[in-house]
Amino acid sequence: MLATVIHAARDIRVEAVPDPLLSTGGDAIVRVVAACVCGSDLWPYRGITPTREPHRIGHEFVGVVEAVGDDVALVQVGDFVIAPFYVCDNTCVNCRNGVSTSCLNGSWWGGDDRFGGFADGGQGERVRVPLADGTLVVVPGPVADEEVPGLLTLADVMGTGYHAAVSAGVTAGSTVAVVGDGAVGLCAVIAARRLGASTIIAISRHRDRQELALEFGATHLVEGRGDEGVRAVRELTGGIGADHVLECVGTKESMDQALRSARPGGRVGFVGVPNGGPELPIRRMFDTNVGVVGGVAPVRGYIEELLPDVRSGAINPGRVFDLELPLADAAEAYAAMDERRAIKVLLRP
Amino acid sequence: MLATVIHAARDIRVEAVPDPLLSTGGDAIVRVVAACVCGSDLWPYRGITPTREPHRIGHEFVGVVEAVGDDVALVQVGDFVIAPFYVCDNTCVNCRNGVSTSCLNGSWWGGDDRFGGFADGGQGERVRVPLADGTLVVVPGPVADEEVPGLLTLADVMGTGYHAAVSAGVTAGSTVAVVGDGAVGLCAVIAARRLGASTIIAISRHRDRQELALEFGATHLVEGRGDEGVRAVRELTGGIGADHVLECVGTKESMDQALRSARPGGRVGFVGVPNGGPELPIRRMFDTNVGVVGGVAPVRGYIEELLPDVRSGAINPGRVFDLELPLADAAEAYAAMDERRAIKVLLRP
């Protein structure tokens, strides 16, 4: 089969690789219907995370089950499934606590899981899914083709934006600022709206993303960064800052802006992968009582909650895909996102 | 009148200073019935915070109102009052948001407030209280002498320990670990119990403090620090760590222990004044979804909530005072706390 392999910074290739095989009783083989490129895939693409040897890449996909192991009970051949961006059993104590990203038996796409050997990356034609009963969520059929982009966002970006809002404690009537206008930041706008925020400030300087933020429920746009951006958020929030700030980037500058955009006693929900960034300024947090809560988003736990809204069209996170390419053009997908020609690229095997 | 002045590290003197005078319409003059020494007073005492020139010290006191300005409406001459460790108007937007430590008009004891000039420190015979209607909480009389220690804890340590537990999100049935066995840590044990935690692990290696922790509701004691302490907490919490960890010290080591004692998705509530300590490790927080929430405790907002429990004896935070001295012996009070001969010292003018 074909799958995407990163060889080095800016060297993305779609290559022939071995077909996946059922290797534990709990596996499923999924034929990928759609995959996509994540903002975090750009760290190795840009060389910020070093690529020491060629390896599979991609961790977001939806597809149809082609085969299941003998022990699989909840997933059947022919099911349309969503895979979160990680593997989990959905039964261990951490999963039950809502932190399936810390599953005691979990693993990551494109790496070794602890039972079945190599698990494929998501940007390929097929994927062996370990712990299929825990990892996969079945979407009751039939699934229309136009539903695919929205369902695919539940593999990562929609759940991740939602985790930012949940971690920040967004509630009805609150004021929210969103730092980051990538797909996750835009989904965080949807999340804030869904949780009832009355003021949602999207921080963006790109026209196309601003428009999408407004469509998703942003009530205000702020273009400034740094001091200017902080000042603008304060002006929109009675001079004190936002109740909740959703940090969806992961750099030093974005976290600094997030912390300073929160009101005293406010909370930053963070989901941007910390990019070797600096540590958090505890004295500032102490003086202002601004808390910081979040992390790698346990999206598996949000899929069932968000699925009905995606299927009904109550929320439309699939709109973050503004470019669709065949899997064979994965290199161009990365380049388009790297150069900000696209917000998020959907790949069709 | 007499008041405590710090001249330099380990140089505490009780000196004659000017009597306080009403200087704004909103002031009250309070005759101090009892004051005390705070763990944070030990930073300048030890020279960790430099003392550039002699200044008043002390920020916890209860007393009786001797005079009020023309604009004071909620406090009357003769009232027994509790002063939180800071001045606030209790009406601004930050106060209304529950963060009175960030009051837009607030100030600190022993410094200039923005309306009335110098506000006395708490370790003296009398204190001019700016913004008396906002700052002071009246305790309905009569107040028995044996109630004084408990009421005095509401000026700081009981409310601060409570803030750790509230910030960490302690709820009924949860598991809690408390890092720090000073007065605040011990009050955090009371707080965790009051909020319904079913497992409360006190980390202490001092026999007297261990006994008080057990009396206050701790269900387990852990003596180890660092890796050993973290391992012990994990063993008591099903191998994963505590749901909530209350950080009541403020050093690098204590915060590290707190972060590593929390389970994935758990939360650290921190109230220890960060002692120039290092910044928070955001990557660890990201990977584990352990949030950090807390800061300088807005105790003014907790006094009314906790007062009935203190008066009824449902909670007994006054037990943290294990030494009582006349105000004239303030220097000995500092030495006793510095040398850990006392948990907390009450001073009587």
From TrEMBL, chains A, B:
Gene3D superfamilies: Medium-chain alcohol dehydrogenases, catalytic domain, NAD(P)-binding Rossmann-like Domain. This is Zinc-dependent alcohol dehydrogenase family protein. Keywords: Metal-binding, Oxidoreductase, Zinc. InterPro entries: ADH-like_C, ADH-like_N, ADH_Zn_CS, ER, GroES-like_sf, NAD(P)-bd_dom_sf. CDD domains: FDH_like_ADH3. GO terms for molecular function: oxidoreductase activity; zinc ion binding. Residues 7-347 form the Enoyl reductase (ER) domain. Its cofactor is Zn(2+). Belongs to the zinc-containing alcohol dehydrogenase family.
